């Protein structure tokens, strides 16, 4: 995640929130929230190198496989649960979305928007896209799936989630006009209905 996108997503998190960051990577977002917004909480990460980086940053981290769920956390135990560039890597994306709504009062999800115009152009030319947000060849990607704004809206509705804000991010800038076409990252803030 670029620094500009990190700052834009951090702006969605209220000051002093208790945060759970699922698939927290090296802990940069949670460290930013701790330093600039007085947030507390935990990151969840599987990769050993990223877990070590979190510890180095002073981020509380649990090494867990998200495909196994969040049974270690009680209902509504966090103010905000983040899934930033995580959902597309999970086998059980729908289950994890429900778990996000269970353990947090608010969920924030961000993922590469497959409907962004450069991706569409690449598909029209007969090739899977390789872009800044989707930097892997189709045969060498860690992404299990790709998604669009509409895909997430349908998934949220199916699972009884109320989307309170949705927009795109392009180079750290919020995109509210035609975000499905004009933004490389889709962002959704939601609550349980």
Summary, kept brief:
This protein is α/β, with parallel strands linked by helices. The chain has 7 helices and 8 strands.
Describe what this molecule looks like in 3D.
This protein has 193 residues and is an alpha/beta fold. Helices cover 32% and strands 26% of the residues. It contains 7 helices and 8 strands, in the order αβαβαββαβααββαβ. It has an 8-stranded mixed sheet with strand order 3-2-1-4-5-8-6-7, sandwiched between helices. A hairpin with a 2-residue loop joins β6 (161-170) and β7. The longest helix is centred in the middle third of the chain and has 11 residues, at 93-103. The two termini are 29 Å apart.
* Assembly category: single chain
Residue fraction in strands: 25-35%
CATH superfamily: Vaccinia Virus protein VP39
Low-confidence stretches: none
CATH topology: Rossmann fold
Shape: globular
For the biggest β-sheet, the strand order reads 3-2-1-4-5-8-6-7
Largest sheet properties:
8 strands, mixed
**Structural class, from helix and strand content?**
alpha/beta
Number of strands: 8
Give the topology string: H per helix, E per strand. Answer: HEHEHEEHEHHEEHE
What level of helicity do the residues show?
25-40%
Count of domains:
1
């Amino acid at each position: 995640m670029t620094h500009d996108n990190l700052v834009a997503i951090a702006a969605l998190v209220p000051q002093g929130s208790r945060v759970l960051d699922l698939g927290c990577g090296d802990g940069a977002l949670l460290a930013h929230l701790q330093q600039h917004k007085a947030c507390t909480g935990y990151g969840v990460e599987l990769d050993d190198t990223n877990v070590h980086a979190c510890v180095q940053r002073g981020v509380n981290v649990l090494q867990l496989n998200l495909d196994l769920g969040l049974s270690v956390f009680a209902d509504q135990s966090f103010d905000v649960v983040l899934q930033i560039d995580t959902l597309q890597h999970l086998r059980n994306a729908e289950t994890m979305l429900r778990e996000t709504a269970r353990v947090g009062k608010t969920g924030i999800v961000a993922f590469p928007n497959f409907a962004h115009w450069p991706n569409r152009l690449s598909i029209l030319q007969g090739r899977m896209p390789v872009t800044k947000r989707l930097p892997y060849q189709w045969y060498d990607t860690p992404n299990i799936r790709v998604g669009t704004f509409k895909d997430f809206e349908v998934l949220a509705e199916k699972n009884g989630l109320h989307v309170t804000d949705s927009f795109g991010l392009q180079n750290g800038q919020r995109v509210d006009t035609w975000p499905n076409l004009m933004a490389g990252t889709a962002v959704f803030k939601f609550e349980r209905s």
